[in-house]
From TrEMBL:
GO terms for cellular component: plasma membrane. It comes from Flavobacterium arcticum. It is found in: Cell membrane. The gene is lepA. This is Elongation factor 4. Belongs to the TRAFAC class translation factor GTPase superfamily. Classic translation factor GTPase family. LepA subfamily. Belongs to the GTP-binding elongation factor family. LepA subfamily. Keywords: Cell membrane, Elongation factor, GTP-binding, Hydrolase, Membrane, Nucleotide-binding, Protein biosynthesis. It holds the Pfam family EFG_C.
Length: 597
């Protein structure tokens, strides 16, 4: 045990975590030259394309220091707020963390939020000043920031570059010398923390765990404490670049487990594995069931594909337990599913996976958060509203609550004014303002989740010219004066376009919605009135004028390859259209409410 070190890397997005992890793998010869490939840890196609780490993984390295062999378990953590629960469980499996700070960008919101998580778990922090090869690097100033933040000494900071490999040996030495070996008692009953799971279509779910006490043995009958389910440990092993089967994994070490589990739902990140016959009395603390934050309807473009869509979603759920869905029907779109996601990125990933892996073409409706409605009859019992159409009649309703978050924004002092205006426009209440340095300010706001899950981040980047970072955590439900704004096309309500909006913004948003839809919905052979309404009261109106002439006419006589391209493009565009009544609505229209600025 004294030769094991468990650590993670925490950093703000793009500060170079994955690149530095690759350098550590090279330096410990965990990967042979043949296996080398940029950003090894990001092995899902989607991750590679987006250049972000979506799921956490673990990898074990062997390292010889002063003639002694050490086992280093690097636990990778996802970098996006949607996946912050997974970050917290990965951190709980470590004794130390490399805190990577980009020498040009300095400390950002996620540097701080992840650091707090690490400190809560008593991790030893090794500050790394990364990307010092960059011409724009500002090592002195950023070192000052790090010292201010951590209260450490300047000598504790390791200057490094994931690009040139500078500082990698120093980092490895610091991992051995500064991070304590795991504590734990080998002859206690088995107690292991599940911090990740991976779906393998041939072998079922692979559970990634860290043993806190006791030993897990191949063939042992084990129990997952939160779900109460029992399994046999058919295969256990350590995670090098590939899996290496072992007979046992001892206290302090990290490994994988395969036991014929077919569904991701059975494995809860944060759960404790113990021996079925001689269980530990204590579950490892911090377990939570992850709750979806954003909901949207997913409907097949072709109504005949409903069953196939259901099959595809079930398969997706096998390897992504955080996706939840229930059948729903919409007057406008027919049969589909109301799905819950961890956040907007998660929603995009699911939509993309449905299209890529399952060849489904789907329409995603306006995303919304989860509201609580209280009826006059039973004002104590909340009715969970995951779809605006499910909101009870205003006359029967006592009040509505919506989820709030604490938002933390770090920005340059030049942009404080703009950032504040944006947050106030988004119904934020400022709760704190701290100057971290004369140039850098930390602002905190209480804000409705609904206002930030959608386009907030893009707007923030724009108003701060990129110099703002942002993080958030939920702080519970608060009463809000919300109304349902409906959209009528050709006199008919399109339920999939309804949204719950704060009463003060309802008129403005209704008006902008109509204008936006007028832009997005293609003209047809007849006039299409677009109306926004609250109840029976119409608050805004636009008309899409009927088509006068044949728009394809200008194709004829043109260059043949261009014409073909245009037709291809139209075919593609066509795929994401839904016929509602006699109006064709493109996918973008369902997202219009999110992009009204
Ligand atoms: P997420 O996984 O999305 O959180 O990002 P990350 O923190 O893992 O960052 P990543 O390693 O993907 O690096 C982000 C970008 O910075 C990439 O374009 C890297 O090539 C670049 N980069 C990383 N390290 C260095 C460095 O030391 N010097 C320079 N110049 N560029 C670097």
């Amino acid at each position: 045990m004294k030769h094991i070190r468990n650590f993670c890397i925490i950093a703000h997005i793009d500060h170079g975590k994955s690149t530095l992890a690759d350098r550590l793998l090279d330096a410990t010869q965990t990967v042979t030259a043949r296996e080398q490939q940029a950003q090894l840890l990001d092995n899902m196609d989607l991750e590679r394309e987006r250049g972000i780490t979506i799921k956490s993984h673990a990898i074990q390295m062997d390292y010889i220091h002063n003639g002694e062999q050490y086992t280093l378990n690097l636990i990778d953590t996802p970098g996006h707020v949607d996946f912050s629960y997974e970050v917290s469980r990965s951190i709980a499996a470590c004794e130390g963390a490399l805190l990577i700070v980009d020498a040009a960008q300095s400390i950002q919101a996620q540097t701080i939020s992840n650091l707090y998580l690490a400190l809560e778990n008593d991790l030893e922090i090794i500050p790394v000043l990364n990307k010092i090869d960059l011409p724009s690097a500002n090592p002195e100033e950023v070192s000052d920031d790090i010292v201010d933040l951590l209260g450490c000494e300047y000598e504790d900071i390791i200057p490094a570059s994931g690009k040139t490999g500078l500082g990698v040996d120093k980092i490895l030495e610091a991992i051995i010398n500064r991070i304590p070996p795991p504590k734990g008692v080998e002859d206690e009953p088995l107690q292991a923390l599940i911090f990740d799971s991976v779906y393998n279509p041939f072998r079922g779910i692979e559970v990634i765990f860290r043993v806190t006490n006791g030993t897990i043995k191949k063939g042992q009958k084990i129990k997952f404490m939160a779900t109460g389910k029992e399994y046999f440990a058919d295969e256990i092993g350590t995670l090098k670049l590939n899996q290496v089967p072992k007979q046992e994994i001892k206290t302090g070490d990290v490994g994988y487990l395969i036991s014929g589990i077919k569904e991701a739902r059975e494995v809860k990140v944060g759960d404790t594995i113990t021996d079925a016959k001689e269980p530990t009395k204590n579950m490892i603390g911090g377990f939570e069931n992850v709750k979806p934050m954003v909901f949207a309807g997913i409907y097949p473009v072709d109504t005949e594909d409903y069953e196939e869509l259901r099959n595809s979603m079930e398969k997706l759920q096998l390897n992504d337990a955080s996706l939840v869905f229930l059948p729903e029907s919409s007057a406008a779109l027919g049969f589909g599913f109301r799905c819950g996601f961890l956040g907007m990125l998660h929603m995009e990933i699911i939509q993309e996976r449905l299209e890529r892996e399952f060849d489904m073409t789907v329409i995603t409706t306006v995303p919304n958060v989860s509201y609580f409605a209280y009826s006059k009859k039973e004002p104590e019992v909340p009715i969970v509203v995951n779809n605006p159409s499910d909101l009870p009649e205003p006359s029967r309703m006592d009040h509505v609550e919506e989820p709030y978050i604490k938002a933390t924004i770090i920005t340059k002092s030049d942009f404080v004014g703009q950032v504040m205006s944006l947050c106030i426009e988004k119904r934020g209440l400022i709760t704190n303002q701290t100057y971290l340095t004369p140039e850098r300010v930390e602002l905190t706001f209480d804000m409705p989740l609904a206002e930030i899950v959608f386009d907030f981040y893009d707007r923030l980047k724009t108003v701060s010219k990129g110099y703002a970072s942002f993080d958030y955590s939920p702080i519970g439900m608060r009463t809000s004066n919300l109304v349902k704004v409906d959209i009528l096309l050709n006199g008919q309500i399109v339920d999939a376009l309804s949204a719950l909006i704060h009463v003060d913004n309802a008129h403005n948003i209704g008006k902008k919605m109509c204008e936006k839809l007028k832009e997005l919905i293609p003209r047809q052979q007849f006039d299409i009135p677009i109306q926004a309404a609250i109840g029976v009261k119409v608050i805004s109106r636009e008309t899409i004028k009927a088509l006068r002439k044949d728009v394809t006419a200008k194709c004829y006589g043109g260059d043949i390859s261009r014409k073909r391209k245009l037709l291809e493009k139209q075919k593609k565009g066509k795929k994401r259209m839904r016929q509602v009544g006699n109006v064709e609505i493109p996918q973008e229209a369902f997202m219009a409410v999110l992009k009204l600025n």
